[in-house]
Amino acid sequence: MTIAGAVTEAERASEEKDVRETVESEKADGKRSDLAEAAKIRYLTPDNASFRKTEGRMLNVTVDGEEHKAVYVHCSFPHTNKRIYLSIRTFENKEIGMIRSLDDFPAGVAELLEEQVKIRYFAPEITKVVKIREEFGYSYWETETTSGVCRFTVRSGGNNVKLVGENRLLVLDVDGNRFVIPDLEKISDKEYRMVEMCM
């Protein structure tokens, strides 16, 4: 199935290869890249940063002795690799620092950060599109998902229904919730025609 604007497998593989090569290069020579210098990126490592979960299940980080409360994890590549180039940010969206790879951290810390990523990027998979109705610049979806029956509203346009892989579709509703159709080729023709109107 060919769809205009789709990211091909080759492009995605190329992106992942570029990122892997950058990570390996930086690990090999132990130097910050020119880009990092230009952007003044502060890399977080087990030597200068410690993470902990609060009683309220929030994430706190202490960097070089300074504690930052209620931080969150932002993925640079949320659809291809959630373990590399993770930006740790404050509630006001100010970057505290960047983690090159979760593999650099002890297993317990990596698991804590992965848990935060799963919470932030929680996206139920749509297993069946029951009905989509369009009206006045919005589409109203009724679906079955891995988290049960979901009804949600999507604003037309603005890349709210977009391909994030060759056949993987991401849907953003008006409340900022994410839903995923993992493989468009596996849904029925009737479902595809409904979804196609929103793309």
List the helices and strands and how they pair.
Blueprint: H1 9-29, H2 34-39, E1 49-53, E2 59-63, E3 66-75, E4 84-89, E5 95-101, H3 107-120, E6 126-135, E7 138-145, E8 148-155, E9 161-163, E10 169-172, E11 178-181, H4 189-196
Antiparallel strand pairs: 1-2, 2-3, 3-4, 4-5, 6-7, 7-8, 9-10, 10-11
Brief rundown of the structure:
This protein is α+β, with helices and mostly antiparallel strands and 199 residues long.
Describe the overall structure.
A hairpin with a 5-residue loop joins β10 (169-172) and β11. The protein has helices spanning 9-29, 34-39, 107-120, 189-196, and strands at 49-53, 59-63, 66-75, 84-89, 95-101, 126-135, 138-145, 148-155, 161-163, 169-172, 178-181. With 199 residues, the protein is α+β, with helices and mostly antiparallel strands. The protein has four helices and eleven strands, in the order ααβββββαββββββα.
